[in-house]
Design the sequence.
């Protein structure tokens, strides 16, 4: 039986979900959070559906069995597309939230915006994204851009610098030449390199990510389940990483507090 004092689990293939965790901890300072990054098995975005699903399910099982999480946030677009439906069937009473590319606010930002969606190959080729794209194509132009290799910069803690800029130029320039109004950061790692993406895209391009929306949805579900923490409690955040490497934990803290 879940208790109000139990922690909220936040999961990602690595460091990316910390961008979502930040919004959650800001919005719910009374909650304890336990963050698990599966950097040992990252990247997820170039794996098959079976691989991503089975890694996600076993990591969530660990967070529930060992850490007694009262709610789960799958702070990874790739893992959400592969496993969130299965998770909801397996744990019907558990508040579970996932993330998906924030296409809606981007599409609604102008009369017929040209929207570049940057995400992992898995997310871009997944059924969930293809459905979203079809829905919004009537009122906008959607350019999907798979970005294999980009999450690795964040995993290394390389958030700025010439190598990252070269990498992004190669990836983005052909699309920027077409004319882009908005960029959707459809992978939770990418907000950590948002400054560099903005620099390459130029100030007239608006960036969108779904972290705040996901944090609000989590708060709503926790309240609905009657599991909100005591408002007078000062919550803490515990970081875990599947590599067991203390350097990964240091990087997690750096990304969380920067
Ligand atoms: N952070 C993950 C996402 O939001 C994926 C990165 C990866 O493991 O490829 O999709």
Sequence:
């Amino acid at each position: 039986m879940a208790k109000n004092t139990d922690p909220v689990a936040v999961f990602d293939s690595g460091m990316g979900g910390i961008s979502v965790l930040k919004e959650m901890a800001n919005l719910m300072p009374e909650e304890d959070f336990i963050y698990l990054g599966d950097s040992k098995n990252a990247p997820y975005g170039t794996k098959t559906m079976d691989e991503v699903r089975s890694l996600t399910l076993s990591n969530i099982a660990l967070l529930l069995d060992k850490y007694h999480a009262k709610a789960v946030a799958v702070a990874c677009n790739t893992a959400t597309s592969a496993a969130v439906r299965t998770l909801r069937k397996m744990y019907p009473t558990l508040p579970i939230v996932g993330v998906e590319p924030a296409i809606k606010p981007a599409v609604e930002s102008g009369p017929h915006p040209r929207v570049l969606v940057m995400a992992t190959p898995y997310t871009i080729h997944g059924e969930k994204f293809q459905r979203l794209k079809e829905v919004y194509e009537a009122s906008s132009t959607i350019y999907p851009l798979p970005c294999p290799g980009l999450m690795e910069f964040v995993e290394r803690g390389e958030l700025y610098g010439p190598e990252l800029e070269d990498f992004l130029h190669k990836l983005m320039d052909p699309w920027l030449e077409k004319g882009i109004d908005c960029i959707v950061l459809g992978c939770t790692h990418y907000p950590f390199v948002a400054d560099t993406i903005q620099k390459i895209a130029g100030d007239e391009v608006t960036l969108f990510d779904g972290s705040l929306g996901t944090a609000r949805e989590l708060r709503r579900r926790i309240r609905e389940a009657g599991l909100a923490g005591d408002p007078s409690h000062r919550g803490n955040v515990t970081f875990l990483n599947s590599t067991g490497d203390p350097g990964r934990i240091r990087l997690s803290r750096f990304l969380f507090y920067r």
